[in-house]
Amino acid sequence: MADPTIQKTAQRTLVLLKPDAVRRGLVGEILSRFEKRGLTIVALDMRTIDGEQADKHYAEHVERDFYPPLRAFVTSGPLVALVLEGDSAVEVVRGINGATDGRKAAPGTIRGDFSLSNRENLVHGSDSAESAEREIGLWFPDLV
Question: Where are the alpha helices (DSSP H) in the chain?
Fold first, then answer.
């Protein structure tokens, strides 16, 4: 029986399965990892985004040197956008995803097991509860 003194904090986060994950047929494998950790899929949509959507999503990076190739990559093909919900979802997803640079990500994480480069790193996960709220509003406005 669950300990009633432990308070769980249900939280939502945005995840993007980037074009490399879709192209390589890893969507089912990646979704399974999130579900096995007790996260619930609240919304899911496969879509192709344009530069304007990419600029809104990555607003804090638009002026950085690495952004133009990132923008070209995320707009290069279909991706899967989803909202996951669960106890400490932001932190759990970031742990499952692994380090942003797939070459440095630990084995057992999505990036550690499947990433082929730093730029094409398979997944995006919100980095904070505040970012999750903003990003969910961009991708799934009917949920806010």
Answer: 19-23, 27-36, 51-57, 67-74, 89-97, 110-114, 129-139
Rounded distance between C-alpha atoms, residue 133 and residue 4, angstroms: 28
Model confidence at 5, pLDDT cuts 50, 70, 90, reads: low
Helices 89-97/129-139 angle, 10° precision: 90
Q: How far is CA 27 from CA 52, 59, 130, in A?
A: 24, 26, 26
Which residues form the catalytic set?
Answer: 124
CA 124, 112, 73, 67 dihedral sign is: positive
Q: What are the pLDDT digits (tens) for 61-97?
A: 999 999 999 999 999 999 999 999 999 999 999 999 9
CA of residue 52 relative to chain centroid, distance: 19
- pLDDT at residue 126 tops 70: yes
CB count within 10 Å of CB 60 equals 10
> What are the tokens at 99?
């380090």
CATH 3.30.70.141 describes domain 10-45+80-138:
yes
